Amino acid sequence: MATSLKIEEALKGRVQHLASQRRRSPHWIMLEAIQQYVEREEARESFKQEALASWAAYQETGRHLTGQEVRTWLNTWGTEDEKAMPECHT
């Protein structure tokens, strides 16, 4: 899919300068930037959807862990006394 972009001269110059510093083409720099942006936004949307699903499940069941319960559990990670995740409760 061929796509063209119109970018301001100042940004164009910055891309060209960065490409020169990195010994890459401006095209490579722009593709990399777009790929990283899309991946970041997809991850953000996935996190949002997961949070909304968790909130809906909580509203339906009331099952949860408190922040302190989670911190206590996480503080055992990497120790000889590492604990399993605590059970959710209402």
What does this structure look like?
The chain has a domain of 54 residues. The chain has three helices and no strands. The model has no long low-confidence stretch (mean pLDDT 97). The protein starts with 8 loop residues before the first helix and ends in a 16-residue tail after the last helix. With 90 residues, the protein is mainly alpha-helical. Helix 1 crosses helix 2. Helices cover 64% and strands 0% of the residues.
List keywords for this structure.
CopG, mainly alpha, Ribbon-helix-helix protein, CopG family, elongated, about 90 residues
Short description:
Pfam families: RHH_1. With 90 residues, this protein is mainly α.
